[in-house]
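Biotin carboxyl carrier protein of acetyl-CoA carboxylase
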Amino acid sequence: MPKKTHDDDVAFIKALAELLNENELTELQVKRAYGEDDSLNVRVSRRTEAAAPQYVAQAPMAQAPAPASAAAAPAAAPGEDPASHPGAVTSPMVGTVYTQAEPGAPAFVSVGDKVSEGDTLLIIEAMKTMNHIPAPRGGTVKRILVEDGGAVEYGAPLMIIE
């Protein structure tokens, strides 16, 4: 297999950005494998609150955290990966996150709430099915790392419970 070049990766990311715009998508994620221990993970997404698209390329083999709401979570330290936190609750599936049972209803949990094992933290809609995500352990909700209505990937950190 030919050796990959930085220029090839840049061209690939630009092509993904064009595909995002041409098809009016909000997010596109691709993993490109070059070999057994060499790959490129790319996530290209468009901010829904802004007119201009945002393009994000991840470092190889890195998992990007889901967008964090400024009101829901304190700012993370630079370089901190919420997925590696021992209290991280990760997404068991790909889908759309809902932090409340229905529009206008109170959120299932807020930062500072005490939760017990099995309490519903949020809902992830996948293939028109609403999946309640239970707390894997009891504790206090320290950070909420997703926004209501946002997309999540499998394994993406949803919140931190300590």
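thats it. The chain has two domains: 6-57, 82-161. DSSP finds one helix and eleven strands in the chain. bye
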